[in-house]
């Protein structure tokens, strides 16, 4: 059976990067604080991830403001999405369109027309915060979204991180809803890492990793858009490093809890 994810995994450098990320996640999961305080670390990872995802949309809100419940609308959307992920895992494997619609409704409430929430766009995308250029038209987007759904639901031997990276990139470049697509893309990446087994407790703040890599985030997506092995492989390697950095962030949370 044809497995496009296996072909991506075979791109030079991808397998090694994925293994390094796996090692970083395994190291995090061995931290002694997780034996009794894993839910606290997961909650903190979700909070930090929401903040980072909003920052990548151009809204940088301090963690203290998020904790106080007074974030900007984009950050509110990121928080709503983050709080819902734990209930969407099983559905993600079987009905990803349904999950994406729900994520968009959560992310875009307050910043998009009510009638557009969870619905595919029928015109141009509303914004381009990463400078990726115009999104594909609605028909081309619909065709690629169908392919993405097949990729998520079909069996594959590829690592979860490879699937997560492709899910993230496709949603980020297609901008299927026209608003808040970056929030949806990053939430879908985390959901894939959780549901497909790399990070089952949702401890890794991968969004923080993307922010920490600075301009490489948008550069990686622009490389992905070229459709070459170098561009796609470079994006997957970027996501692997983001996972490593996200694991490091959550390790720091564990150690802060250990110090009391």
From TrEMBL:
* Gene3D superfamilies the record matches: Fido-like domain
Q: PROSITE patterns given for it? A: FIDO (PS51459)
Q: What InterPro entries is this protein classified in? A: Fido, Fido-like_dom_sf
- Coiled-coil portions: none
- From which domain of life does this come? Bacteria
Region Disordered: list its residue ranges.
Answer: 111-139
Renumbered to this chain, the Low complexity biased-composition regions fall at 122-139
Which residues does the UniProt record annotate as the domain Fido?
A: 95-238
Query: Could you identify this protein by its name?
Result: Oxidoreductase
């Amino acid at each position: 059976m044809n497995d496009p994810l296996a072909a991506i995994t075979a791109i030079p450098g991808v397998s090694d990067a994925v293994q390094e990320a796996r090692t970083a996640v395994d190291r995090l999961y061995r931290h002694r604080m997780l034996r009794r305080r894993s839910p606290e670390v997961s909650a903190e990872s979700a909070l930090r991830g929401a903040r980072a995802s909003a920052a990548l949309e151009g809204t940088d809100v301090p963690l203290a403001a998020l904790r106080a419940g007074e974030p900007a609308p984009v950050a509110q959307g990121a928080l709503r999405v983050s709080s819902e992920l734990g209930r969407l895992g099983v559905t993600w494997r079987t009905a990803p369109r349904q999950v994406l619609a729900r994520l968009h409704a959560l992310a875009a409430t307050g910043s998009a027309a009510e009638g557009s929430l969870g619905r595919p766009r029928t015109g141009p995308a509303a914004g381009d915060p990463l400078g990726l250029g115009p999104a594909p038209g609605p028909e081309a987007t619909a065709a690629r979204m169908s392919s993405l759904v097949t990729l998520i639901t079909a069996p594959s031997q590829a690592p979860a991180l490879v699937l997560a990276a492709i899910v993230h990139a496709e949603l980020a470049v297609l901008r299927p809803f026209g608003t808040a697509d970056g929030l949806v893309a990053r939430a879908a990446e985390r959901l894939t890492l959780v549901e497909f087994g790399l990070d089952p407790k949702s401890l890794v703040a991968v969004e923080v990793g993307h922010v920490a890599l600075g301009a490489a985030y948008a550069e990686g997506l622009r490389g992905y858009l070229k459709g070459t092995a170098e561009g796609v492989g470079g994006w997957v390697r970027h996501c692997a490093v983001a996972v490593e950095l996200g694991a490091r962030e959550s390790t720091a949370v564990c150690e802060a809890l250990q110090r009391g």
